[in-house]
Amino acid sequence: MTDIIIIGAGIAGLACARRLNDAGRNVIVVDKGRGIGGRVATRRAGDMRFDHGAPHVSATGGEFANVLCRLGDYKHAASWVDTAGETWSVGTPGMSAIPKGMAAGLDVRLGTSVHAVVLNGSGWDVQCDEQKFAADRVVITVPAPQAAGLLGPQHPLMAEIAGVEMSPGLTLMAAISGNVPTARPGKAHDPLSSIIQDCSKPGRPDIDGSAWVAQAGLAFSHAHLEEDRPDVAARMVLFLCDRLGVTPDRVTHAVAHRWRYSRVANPLGQPFARMPDATLYLGGDWCVGPLIEDAWTSGTAIADDLLTRTL
Ligand SMILES: Cc1cc2nc3c(=O)[nH]c(=O)nc-3n(C[C@H](O)[C@H](O)[C@H](O)COP(=O)(O)OP(=O)(O)OC[C@H]3O[C@@H](n4cnc5c(N)ncnc54)[C@H](O)[C@@H]3O)c2cc1C
Question: For residue 174, how far is its CA from the centre of ligand 1 (angstroms)?
Fold first, then answer.
């Protein structure tokens, strides 16, 4: 039996695993995805890289600033100044380098989708598609609306997290041939809330043309969430071309991504939820706020709580 199973290899799950592992605990992290990082993600297309989840990260707290600093020391992250002159940290050569760096040395099982977490005596069974893990304690760090799928809608923790809200988001990854254009400010009601030239970030490969990531605003994302992704890409590309002042025939690549649970709209207001016997925890950015640092704060707080108990 494993001491602790953590479900989700996003920033919250990795922060929790890192601290427990460093304290000598036996931890396994499972994630249904093919890559580490959850919403801190990088998609490759040929030589191009697109950060289609969080585009950058910053720290308000000293401890998380140290984490980013250490990632920088190992060349997993670097500073980047955006077109507004703001300085951020970004993963190198893509944002996914940040969770990959955090996961170094951890036991992470990718491609492992959990479909139920059920009590078994004094421990828990974590049931996956093709295998089952037994653990003394389980930490679930999936987006709040997905936790009911693992525990069942009647589980007592579901009532505790019922007020959490997460908003969806649509993302466009596009490549433009020729001279690198400059994004013009959006007019009122422009459906794109953010446009970033990804190839201007440090450590990206030299490419022919330029690589862009555009995020749709909330109204557009809600309105087109269930549309086929090629249709979403076709819509968003027109808005992007307008903002960049280029004709659509210069677009050499356009792919849309749907984030059903993109950003936290209404957080829980405490760093985690747990059963009174402290054998089952729920955490993630949605406990604290909409930022990567909030996910890290939640995962770290769970680990600290677990470490105060006898395992
Ligand atoms: C488009 C976009 C833009 C953003 N912009 C910013 C920004 O500018 N600044 C910022 O700080 N933050 C930003 N964020 C938010 C940031 O990405 C998140 O706050 C943070 O990554 C959340 O981490 P997490 O670990 O809580 O959750 P997640 O990253 O969602 O991790 C949860 C993990 O659980 C896994 N999982 C789910 N269900 C199962 C299952 N049944 N079995 C196994 N595994 C499962 C998922 O695969 C995922 O890897 C942005 C996010 C998006 C999507």
Answer: 22
The reply to whether 183 and 208 lie within a common domain is yes
Number of structural domains found in the chain: 2
**pLDDT score for 180:** 81
* Ligand 1 pocket member 271 (CB < 6 A): no
Query: With a 6 A CB cut-off, is 233 part of the ligand 1 pocket?
Result: no
List the one residue out of 14, 5, 68, 21 whose CA is nearest residue 38.
Answer: 14
- Domain carrying residue 160: 2-37+103-164+267-307
Residue 179 Cα, ligand 1 centroid: separation in angstroms? 34
Residue 62 included in any domain: no
Instruction: Quote the pLDDT of residue 242.
Output: 94
Per-residue model confidence as pLDDT tens digits over 7-59: 999 999 999 999 999 999 999 999 999 999 999 999 999 989 999 999 999 99
Distance 180 CA to ligand 1 centre (A): 30
Distance between Cα 230 and ligand 1 center (Å): 23
Let me know whether 173 and 200 are in one domain.
yes
Are 189 and 256 within one domain?
yes
Is residue 262 lining ligand 1, measured as CB closer than 6 Å? yes
* 8 Å CB contact between 283 and 298: yes
Mean pLDDT value across residues 153-171: 97
ipTM above 0.95, yes or no: yes
